[in-house]
Write a structure and sequence with these properties.
Elements: H1 2-22, H2 27-51, H3 57-84
């Protein structure tokens, strides 16, 4: 049963990574994809720590770092929209 939850976490991680690669031009979609990847990694860590009956201190540190990452990303998004008017990167489209 726990392997099913790990499989669900890996599917969520892969779908977040695919979404990150597909929507590379819009900064908001990139941030949402990164948050989804972080949430799936947190889920996998939580299942791993539950399986091996470890302490959950690392998962608390991980989720607090993810919150800080989200706050920094939103502040960059707000400054980008304030400066340019939208969140679309035209220069990143050359890479894909």
């Amino acid at each position: 049963m726990l392997s099913f939850f790990v499989f669900i976490g890996l599917v969520c991680f892969m779908s977040g990574a695919l979404s990150f690669c597909m929507k590379g031009g819009h900064f908001l979609m990139m941030l949402l994809s990164l948050e989804f990847i972080t949430l799936s990694l947190y889920f996998i860590f939580y299942i791993y720590f539950y399986m091996f009956s470890c302490d959950y201190y690392f998962s608390m540190i991980f989720i607090s770092m993810a919150v800080c990452e989200g706050a920094v990303g939103l502040s960059v998004l707000v400054s980008l929209i304030y400066s340019f008017g939208d969140d679309f990167f035209q220069s990143l489209n050359i890479l894909w």
